[in-house]
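Supplementary notes for students who missed Thursday's class. We covered one full example, reproduced here. Read the sequence, then the structure, then the short commentary at the end.
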Amino acid sequence: MTQAFHSIHTHGFVRAAVCTPSVLPGDPGFNAAETLRMAREADVESCDLVLFPELGISAYAIDDLFLQDALQKRVEAEIAGLVAASARLKPVLIVGAPLVHNGRLYNCAVAISRGRILGVVPKSFLPNYREYYEKRWFAPGAGVTGLTMRLAGQDAPFGTDLVFEAQDLADFVFHLEICEDFWAPQPPSTAGAMAGALILCNLSASNIVVGKADDRETLCASQSMRCQAAYLYSAAGPGESTTDLAWDGQASIHELGRRLAQTDRFPAKSEMAIADIDVGRLRLERLRTPTFNDAAAAAGHPEKAFRRIRFEHQPHFDDVGLVRPLDRFPFVPDDPARLDKDCYEAFNIQVHGLVKRIQSTKSKHLVIGVSGGLDSTHALLVAVRAFDAVGLPRKNILAFTMPGFATSDGTKSNAWALMNSLGVTGQEIDIKPTARLMLEEMGHPFANGEPVYDIAFENVQAGLRTDYLFRLANQRAAFVLGTGDLSELALGWCTYGVGDHMSHYNVNGGVAKTLIQHLIRWVVKTQPLDDDAKATLLSILGTEISPELVPAGADGAIQSTQAKVGPYELQDFNLFHITRFGLAPSKVAFLAWHAWRDVKTGQWPENFPDEARNAYDLATIKKWLSLFLFRFFEISQFKRSAVPNGPKVISGGALSPRGDWRAPSDGNARVWLDELEANVP
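Structure (token representation):
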């Protein structure tokens, strides 16, 4: 597969377009020509599916002209022309037209692919209130199933019981409904989704009144979230009759509640919005959500009542880029308002989790190690806010800084400045004498003056720090607050047992390293802190991430965590997509390459420093992803199987065996590493 690595079709994407073409009321020739022009434009853009508005071949607002024989025949003739032209086009076309069957006129959606009419779906629910009079002209489609229609010289499946599936492109399965259908209490697309459709398409006309655009947005987002699907919506735009109504041409693509693309409203000319839909992710999301399948069972398994119309899509495997919003930092939104909201919620989840633990243990004191690094800094901020909330004095927070053989003056001074500015009880315990004694009794070469800085040397220090904290907690009727974060748990970058792995309660265990940095920035911006505290926090944010266990080398370079386990911004990206959605490593690499290959493309979180904006080539992405897979799947699960209590904070990751993640401690990474090696060049 490596020769097609850069193709969206290799990785489970379907490129869709939603259109709002210009129309002339009652002029099928003009309307079909504009439809075909836009279809050809979508073909050039390598689209797989193109959605047009309701009754787009005739136009929607033509009233009694629907009942004219000349118009009906011209509509069918223009559809025949579109069908013939589609033989030379890649995308499936979905167009709206008034069509006659068995002496009744139906408001229909027609699916066309490569010279074939795949099927015709009538509108189930006809609005007949306020400005709508559709029952004057059309028969309702509700209950119309199992039929065949003769159209443009072909016999095509006809009914509301159709789901369409590409035989040669996995997960390209779609369903059609029309306008009013998704305003109903139980939209037809709900049954279509439970019957297996991953892309739900709505051909709409939908005149505009004040406030209606927000209602449409809510419904599209809600239906895509509830049905764990993509929802495509195309509304009538320029050229529709304004005798009594106006049209804004709102068209959008949503996936799992998130809008991927939309057209401009009130356009002067035809508009098209394009996005790549991750149908592979949608399939995996349904697999991991029993409620979706339980609902299908409760509904009598709708797949038994639907006809699945299969077609040859003939997918290409070219490199056509990736057209969809893609977060560099899945745990950190690009949108400033959303980031502010997420930080508010995350911080308060942590605070309220700790408040409950304080109340349940009836503790008056808390012990925490403060290193001057990101994690312990943020945990201390949470502790301060929690003590304020329960009315305990901050001096009851017993904060200890414990310098070792590689502790720098900068981190130590930041630790003291932070403890002093926050008003907690700060103390210092120099662990070096005890560490030397332990190393000497172990017969470690370092005790004889040899510069041997192995894992035992590191963990003697890490273990002593935690050992002190637990004994101090025993001595002072307190409990130990953990500081290790989600990213470290994923990589196993923590000292097991009596080490930074363990505590009585850990508020950071559900928070990724990349988010913690923004949480601290948010605290600086929103919480009542004095200038000294703010200055210290900003200094900590600019400090190299290091365990500070190994002394600096002759060149003065300090021990770097990210040089050992990889950039946290890449490893958090890997963590999110593998644990939240179960994506294959090659797909994670594909997404990471698009997200990280160029600092100038895509969005960055608010206030992200220019000098910290990195780019990574595919070889680097593959290298660190390989390390992630090995550490995550093969050598670190035993640590996650014994994590302390702590609140789940973000939907994209929680690794407690009591919550989101269960895996064998003696597993191996072979399947994931093989997949990566076989499919990423």
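Commentary. The chain has a mean pLDDT of 95. The chain has 20 helices and 20 strands. If anything here is unclear, bring it to office hours.
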